[in-house]
Amino acid sequence: MKTVYNSMLNDFVQLPDYDRSVLKSRIVHLGFGAFHRAHQALITNEMLNRTGCDWGICEINLFGGEDLIQSLRAQDHLYTVAEKGADSTTLKVIGSVTESMHPSLDGIHAVLEKMAEPQVAIVSMTITEKGYCADPATGTLDKNNPLVVADLANPTEPKSALGYIVQALLLRRERGLSPFTVMSCDNVQENGHVAKAAILEFAQLLDPELAAWIETHVTFPCTMVDRIVPAATEETLAEISELLGCEDPCAIACEPFRQWVIEDNFVAGRPNWNMAGAQFVADVVPYEEMKLRMLNGSHSFLAYLGYLGGYAHISDTMTDEAYRSAAFNMMMQAQAPSLTMPEGTDLEGYATLLIDRFTNPSLKHKTWQIAMDGSQKIPQRMGGSLQFHLSEGTSFSWLATAIAGWMRYVSGVDEQGNEIDVRDPMAETLRAICDQHGQSPSVVPALLNIEAIFPAELGENPYVVDAVSTAYQSLIDHGARATVAAL
Ligand code: NAI
Ligand code: CS2
């Protein structure tokens, strides 16, 4: 792409409008996946277009994605984002990435040395929910996680993101360098607090003095991140390359909407991302809860019940009036009442916008993709609102149906008897429980009793067991489409 960058790209492609040679890797990002390319890196690019400062990003993939890093290097770290609305597409070439690394290409020590360089002020992350090695029910470090066990035994050769961050901070402390801010950009409830708790607990097990130093010197801002960025497919890449005028294996397509709300708590400075639409606030938690419950909660509802009902994409579910109104009711009846928002927040307007975003026919967002890692997602997307309805004595049938949908899905067999490719760190455990029970609602209390996912007060609550069992039985007797239509 470097060679074509100045000559062959189609005229309407937006190019970086700043001097890339002055950029320094002041941000190290863990997780050069789909989302980061279309969110933080793009927002940094737009900020650079407006302010011309030196905040650049060094991209690191700790798990998989070696090919992507190699392709990125081959094109001078430039790549394309296609923002796809219902009727039009905008192409932006992103220039904010300065360099990239991968432990299997460069070695673990080179990655650690990069993170310990003096100019690094922020280590940001999009490492998926499971990357935090935290217990989904409590948000605290899972000491039995195989990556944690391996990194505690061999801390100078880390594998997990936690292990890398703690080892890099140790190097900085030993060298008398300032610490960096650790900024989580994952869909994790109170993501900064979860990152902090996991990192401190991990450091405590290694070296209590280091843990105390981290606690005093490092900050962990919470962030609310939002933009729908489906995984790239051959079709999207071909379509982008046609519009672009050349091939770009690092290209990614997303929706036009984006939002980023960041707790303004940075220990070593930060870019003025607000110049490109981000909001710095004192308390992100209400925005995170709103987004996780209303957007992600209804996304999971649509993913499980949509997949079982034969809908491949979220936009396909929106063509079914029953799913469309169930998703809106899930937002407004099940999730919105559980939120405490700053005055003036228009939750109904937010829900209407979400339904519009889900409807975008240009985005091929697979229900299967969103259904992934449910054991990590369900607690934060539905646990808090479930607790709310239990304490208020109000109905939670949408939540119960979503959870029953997840239980039916993780059995690994769809409504036609075909195998489902269930991707989840707990897939084997979940499948074994489902196999023991067959398609009987006795599987419901068995799955609700998994303490890593559901706290005992939920898992053993008779109202929860009853409502989820009823929804589960309906899925078995009538299928997902009829169950959603009856809601
Ligand atoms: P992706 O599959 O494209 O990328 C996943 C990234 O996580 C890869 O860079 C991989 O190296 C890294 N990773 C995976 N497991 C890891 C582990 N155990 N430790 C460290 N790194 C690990 O996924 P995508 O779409 O980039 O999403 C990543 C996360 O971003 C999501 O899980 C979510 O929390 C957040 N997000 C995604 C949005 C989307 O629409 N795609 C929107 C908002 C947030
Ligand atoms: C989705 C999210 O994959 C999922 O679980 O719910 O990635 C969703 O697309 C984003 O959070 C939107 O910001």
TrEMBL record:
Domain Mannitol dehydrogenase C-terminal: 283-475
Record GO terms (molecular function): fructuronate reductase activity
InterPro entries linked: 6-PGluconate_DH-like_C_sf (IPR008927), 6PGD_dom2 (IPR013328), Mannitol_DH (IPR000669), Mannitol_DH/Oxidoreductase (IPR050988), Mannitol_DH_C (IPR013118), Mannitol_DH_CS (IPR023027), Mannitol_DH_N (IPR013131), NAD(P)-bd_dom_sf (IPR036291)
NCBIfam families to which the protein is assigned, alphabetical: PRK15037.1
TM region(s), chain numbering: none
PROSITE patterns the record matches: MANNITOL_DHGENASE (PS00974)
Protein's name according to its UniProt entry: Fructuronate reductase
SUPFAM superfamilies: 6-phosphogluconate dehydrogenase C-terminal domain-like (SSF48179), NAD(P)-binding Rossmann-fold domains (SSF51735)
Domain Mannitol dehydrogenase N-terminal: start-end pairs: 26-274
Keywords: NAD, Oxidoreductase
EC number: 1.1.1.57
Matches recorded under Pfam families: Mannitol_dh (PF01232), Mannitol_dh_C (PF08125)
Source organism per UniProt: Enterovibrio gelatinilyticus
